[in-house]
Amino acid sequence: MNLIIRVTDKGNNFYIGSTELSYNPFNEILDKVIQLLNTLRGKDLIRKWQYEQMMPDRTKCELAHLYFNPKTHKIY
Q1: Nearest partner of 72 among 14, 23, 18, judged by Cα
Q2: pTM of the entire structure?
Q3: Of 23, 27, 42, 56, which residue is 20 to 30 A from 64 by alpha carbon distance?
Q4: Out of the domains of life, which is the source (predicted)?
Q5: What is the pLDDT of residues 15-53, one digit of tens each?
Q6: Biggest distance spanned by C-alpha atoms of the chain
């Protein structure tokens, strides 16, 4: 198991977390984006060229990487 150990942004704490997600949300996110674009286009709220420009290409998309200092003092 690969772990991340980081100093938090406030306080003198360390954050320990896994480097891997427990599941891959890529397909779920992509499907929601496509569904939203189809809804907007179906209701004529965006033009065809806008729809085509915004439609993601599954072969070229990837999840973004998140870099930050964990905020352990905040309760979410």
Answers
A1: 14
A2: 0.62
A3: 42
A4: Eukaryota
A5: 777 777 778 889 999 999 999 999 999 999 999 999 999
A6: 53
- Map out the domains of the chain as residue ranges: 20-60
| Residue 72: both structure tokens together | 């352990």
Residue whose structure tokens are 């905020």? 71
Q: What tens digit of pLDDT does each residue of 5-22 get?
A: 877 776 677 777 777 777
β-strand partners of 3: 18
Q: Output the six-digit token pair for 43.
A: 């209701």
Position 38 scores a pLDDT of: 98
How many CB atoms are located within 10 Å of the residue 29 CB? 13
One-letter amino acid identity for 59? T
Q: Are 68 and 15 in contact (CB under 8 A)?
A: no
Q: Which two tokens stand for residue 13?
A: 């704490």
* Rounded Cα distance, 31 and 70, in Å: 29
